[in-house]
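Hi C.,

You asked whether I'd gotten around to modeling the 175-residue construct. I have! Everything is below, sequence then structure, no commentary in between.
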Amino acid sequence: MIFARMLLATIVALLSGSALAIHTIANGSQITVTTIITTSENISAFQCWTFSAPFLLGPAPFLALNLGDFDNLTYRVFPPHSSTGVHNAPRHQLILVQSGIVMITLPDGSDDPVYAQPGPSGLILALDVEGQGHTTSQPSDEEGLVLELPFRNGVIPPHKVINETGACRGQESFL
């Protein structure tokens, strides 16, 4: 129950980000999210996905979206100007940026960096558990605070790939 309350508070914080002021979330809306995948060539790549499940009317006045079942919750702090080096996602997980700017790059330079910060761009799916990997860094002068939520048994919620060859690049939002 405590985990459910923490997750709800996190989702509310995401939805209240200033970048959402231009978006209207309505019944039937969907989340669009940049996803890090491993290709058939065993390299990491960015794609743009939308979860198949829409926001539904919950107890008034709330809208609700089930993002899946999670095993755990890790609260990670990135020091200013830090980098993880090249690594794979330890498991299929949803990443939620709470503060700071998180920059994700691919080691082969095949795509521009993805910048994630609180608001619509702060939700990332990290699914590249094998292969080439990616780098995560905190390029700003402030700490980066990130929540990592691994999907239970690695089960990724139903989704649709919107762009197979790149990140959402400004499409991260509530459609």
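If it helps when you're writing up: The domain at 2-163 is CATH 2.60.120.10 (Jelly Rolls).

Thanks,
B.
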